[in-house]
């Protein structure tokens, strides 16, 4: 193998970085921990309800999306905080935009769950 960053080695390294990211999110981000707990409960519920395969994908995918966006938001916040502690309008905008993205993902998840579960209410 001529280049250590090609092929399986690159995939292995990427997986290690991802695991470090998951651990950092769990260790340092209270919002991620809260959303992860809700996601686990929601995923179990989505499997218990026995919806159609498409409905199950939408239910699980919508809460999974919240976790994805939360991790991206946390990454944005970490980079902004790394730049410096002083307040700057662009830093505030970056953090606000990340927060807005998380809120949109949560609203989407609530909409999907509400829409798909509405038919189960007698």
UniProtKB/TrEMBL annotation:
- Pfam families associated with the record: DAGK_prokar
The UniProt keywords, alphabetically, are: ATP-binding, Cell inner membrane, Cell membrane, Kinase, Lipid biosynthesis, Lipid metabolism, Magnesium, Membrane, Metal-binding, Nucleotide-binding, Phospholipid biosynthesis, Phospholipid metabolism, Transferase, Transmembrane, Transmembrane helix
- Which Gene3D superfamilies is this protein grouped with? 1.10.287.3610
Q: Where are the active-site residues found? A: 70
| Keyword Oxidoreductase belongs to the record | no
Please list the residues that bind ATP: 10, 17, 29, 77, 86-88, 95-96
Where is this protein found?
A: Cell inner membrane
The organism's place on the tree of life at top rank: Bacteria
Q: How does it sit in the membrane?
A: Multi-pass membrane protein
- The record lists the membrane-crossing segments as 30-51, 57-76, 97-118
GO biological process: what's one of them? phosphatidic acid biosynthetic process
Q: Give an example GO molecular function.
A: ATP binding
| Cofactor mode of binding and number, as noted | Mn(2+), Zn(2+), Cd(2+) and Co(2+) support activity to lesser extents.
PROSITE patterns for the chain? DAGK_PROKAR
What is the protein's given name? Answer: Diacylglycerol kinase
Q: Which organism is it from?
A: Acerihabitans arboris
Q: What is the lineage of its organism?
A: Bacteria, Pseudomonadati, Pseudomonadota, Gammaproteobacteria, Enterobacterales
């Amino acid at each position: 193998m001529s280049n250590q960053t090609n092929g399986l080695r690159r995939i292995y390294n990427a997986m290690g970085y991802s695991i470090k990211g998951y651990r950092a999110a769990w260790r340092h981000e209270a919002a991620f921990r809260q959303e992860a707990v809700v996601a686990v409960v929601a995923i179990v519920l989505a499997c218990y309800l026995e919806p159609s395969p498409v409905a199950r994908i939408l239910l699980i995918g919508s809460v999974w999306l919240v976790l994805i966006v939360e991790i991206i938001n946390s990454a944005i916040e970490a980079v902004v905080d790394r730049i410096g502690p002083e307040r700057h309008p662009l830093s505030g905008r970056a953090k606000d935009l990340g927060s807005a993205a998380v809120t949109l993902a949560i609203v989407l998840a609530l909409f999907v769950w509400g829409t798909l579960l509405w038919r189960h209410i007698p």
